[in-house]
Write a structure and sequence with these properties.
- The strands form five sheets. The chain has an eight-stranded antiparallel beta sheet with strand order 3-2-4-1-10-9-11-14, with helices on one face. A six-stranded antiparallel beta sheet has the order 5-6-7-8-12-13.
- Strand 12 and strand 13 form a beta hairpin.
- It has 609 residues and is α/β, with parallel strands linked by helices.
- It has 19 helices and 26 strands.
- InterPro entries: GATase_2_dom, GFAT, GFAT_N, GlmS/AgaS_SIS, GlmS/FrlB_SIS, Ntn_hydrolases_N, SIS_dom, SIS_dom_sf.
- It is found in: Cytoplasm.
- Homodimer.
């Protein structure tokens, strides 16, 4: 959540800052602003709402200058408003900040006692005042930032500029991502590579408690003790084209249709005709995975649903007990960790605050090792894990995650098969499942062809306020994911249940105004599901059934809309059946006129609790 862009250059940098903020809009925000050093003053442009509102103010009164910081804010302290929008100015300091400072209230009171006044309700303005206090005491900007962050409790990524050093910006991070973009005669700071990819593809990823100082000609990184540290620059794999919508109406639609390629990329070089290839989890993986006797999967949101599917796979194929935890709950629970248990952290961004904190907490709880499934190679979760598997989904701009989920499932399938082989899974069964997994991109491609049928079904949801999703077995987490997608972007209240739970409560809600979406793959639970659906029909419920082409289900019956999907085998069916439900949520949201890519109140990367 929130986004930072900063630049020191030989050219006017306002267009760079505005373009960077637009590239970060996917993260979610409610206000935007920028500050530029212009002669002997810092000039700010801030607005509640979208970047375009702030850009219009800038166009009406352009601000020249080669040093500036910019920000998109998602409200945590103080309501969305111009006065609470970043950058904040205190004395001769301007600052932008992602994260939450937990001791801001006590710092604010001590600063007020010294005569400081505050114009906003934010913790960020307090940070600026603390830094300005150190500048007034005679410290350089870097020294002041370093001293200030030692006083802070919480999480932050910051970029700070000072009128006393107008051609210099200082950044720092703890718990929130921040990177350096390296140019020629210009350098940048950003929350992620997408903010900077149009001006440079050379990136330097900062680590915990790093303090960085950038000028036009130099980048220097220091620890909190003031000593220099080395950080390696990398060429980003992201291209400028990959963060454009192209022919698609929304990023979410583009990303839904990118899934065959994203899943193929995730599997490429990792599975072959003889099974899962060696060393794909890291060169130290073999002794750890051979020893693994239990697994705890910890994640949030969509990644949590992927972990729930993986539980079915791993327990079935490898006979290893799996516990799936919501990261925000795991941190505050007295978890029992059996001997030789592997901790698996799942995160699209690799910076999800609760998941990252849970992984760090796992270090003291006696796990065998930590394993990361993630989409961002340079992220904190990846850097701090013992083993890792990258999902290769590419940039995901839409807030509602799509290709991250299916690529996480592909990664989990690789892990489940590898563990199964180690635990004595029959060779013929193992090779058949490996062949099935390799066919997943093709089956997803086929599932995308259901879009015309789903467009017609979406009409039924336009005026609905509630929906129920049903699934059995490994399709129950898929139902959870389908309901999450619908509520995220269409604002229809949706819930998901195992179909067998209908008579234990949810059936009381069923009437002609409650659409029920059911996932019906071909398998041993199909007859059970059909019985559950009969209970819905008997009460006048409107059914939307995503049924496997081989499943014996009635088509064209009153109150039933049927979409046929070739789900492949049992292993890949959860990923395949996810796709039409993504399309359903997308087209319902489009027809209801919501902001599909940036749904209200939500952020893409939740980097605070």
């Amino acid at each position: 959540m929130c986004g930072i862009v900063a630049a020191v250059a030989q050219r006017d940098i306002a267009p760079i800052l505005i373009a960077g903020l637009k590239a970060l809009e996917y993260r979610g925000y409610d206000s935007a602003g920028m500050a530029i050093a212009d002669g002997g003053e810092i000039r700010r442009v801030r607005a509640k709402g979208k970047v375009r509102e702030m850009e219009a103010l800038y166009d009406a009164d352009p601000v020249p200058g080669g040093t500036g910081i910019a920000h998109t804010r998602w409200a945590t302290h103080g309501v969305p408003s111009e006065k609470n929008a970043h950058p904040h100015v205190q004395g001769r300091i301007a600052i932008v900040h992602n994260g939450i400072i937990e001791n801001h209230a006590s710092l604010r009171e001590s600063l007020k006692a010294k005569g400081r006044s505050f114009l906003s309700e934010t913790d960020t303005e307090v940070m600026g005042a603390v830094i300005d206090e150190h500048v007034q005491a005679g410290k350089s900007l870097r020294q002041a930032v370093t001293a200030a962050v030692r006083e802070l409790e919480g999480a932050y990524a910051i970029a700070v500029m000072s009128l006393d050093e107008p051609e210099r910006i200082v950044g720092a991070r703890r718990g929130c991502p921040l990177l350096v973009g390296i140019g020629i005669g210009e350098h940048f700071l950003g929350s992620d590579a997408q903010a900077l990819i149009k001006v440079t593809n050379r990136m330097m990823y900062l680590e915990e408690d790093d303090v960085v100082e950038i000028t036009r000609d130099s980048v220097a990184v220091f620890g909190l003790d003031g000593s220099p540290v080395d950080r390696t620059a990398h060429e980003s794999e992201i291209s400028a084209d990959s963060v454009e919508r192209g022919e698609y109406r929304h990023y979410m639609q583009k990303e839904i249709f990118e899934q065959p390629r994203a899943v193929a990329d995730t599997l490429e070089g990792r599975i072959g005709p003889h099974g899962v290839l060696p060393n794909i989890f890291g060169i130290d993986a073999d002794p750890i995975l051979d020893k693994t006797r239990g697994i705890h999967i910890v994640a949030c949101g969509t990644s949590y649903h992927a972990g729930m599917v993986a539980k079915y796979w791993i327990e079935h194929l490898a006979r290893i007990p799996v516990v799936v935890e919501v990261a925000s709950e795991y941190r505050y629970r007295d978890v029992v960790v059996p001997e030789d248990t592997l901790f698996v952290a799942v995160s699209q961004s690799g910076e999800t605050a609760d998941t990252l904190a849970a992984m760090r907490e796992s270090r003291r709880r006696g796990y065998l090792a930590t394993f990361a499934i993630c989409n961002v190679p340079e992220s904190s979760v990846v850097r701090e894990s013992d083993l890792r598997l990258m999902t290769r989904a590419g940039p995901e701009i839409g807030v509602a995650s799509t290709k991250a989920f299916t690529t996480q499932l592909a990664a989990f399938a690789l892990l489940a098969l590898d563990l199964g082989r180690r635990r004595g899974l029959d060779d013929a069964v193992y090779l058949e499942h490996c062949k099935e997994l390799q066919s997943l991109p093709r089956y997803i491609e086929n599932a995308l062809q259901t879009e015309p049928a789903i467009l017609a079904i979406a009409d039924h949801f336009i005026n609905k306020q509630h929906a129920l999703f049903l699934g059995r077995g490994a399709q129950f987490p898929v139902a959870l994911e389908g309901s999450l997608k619908l509520k995220e972007i269409s604002y229809i209240h949706a819930e998901a249940y195992p179909a067998g739970e209908l008579k234990h409560g949810p059936l009381a809600l069923v009437d002609e105004n409650m659409p029920i979406v059911a996932v019906a793959p071909n398998g041993p639970l199909l007859d059970k599901l059909k019985s559950n659906l009969q209970e819905v029909r008997a009460r006048g419920g409107e059914l939307i059934v995503f049924a496997d082409e081989r499943a014996e289900m009635e088509d064209g019956t009153e109150h039933i809309a049927m979409v046929r999907v070739d789900g492949g085998g049992d292993l890949i069916a959860p990923a395949v059946f996810t796709v039409p439900m993504q399309l359903l949520a997308y087209h319902v949201a489009v027809q209801r006129g919501t902001d599909v890519d940036q749904p209200r109140n939500l952020a893409k990367s939740v980097t605070v609790e």
